[in-house]
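User:
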Amino acid sequence: MAIRVTLDRMLLERRMSLTELCDRVGITMANLSILKTGKAKAVRFSTLEALCRELGCQPGDLLQFTDEPGDEDDDGTE
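Assistant: Predicted structure:
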């Protein structure tokens, strides 16, 4: 089980680059890239709020719960 970040899909739908979103939200490219690739372990509500504001979406548009096998870490934990 995992929470998936669908930021790449939102950027594509909005025809917005990662660089443009970084500038508009005030988050570093490195941190936004970590979030986009699903490597983030947490996200601040203030960051989520800023992303939703700039992308014109709801938190549920950026986050997706998946219950598919293989979404656990290598040791079998979440």
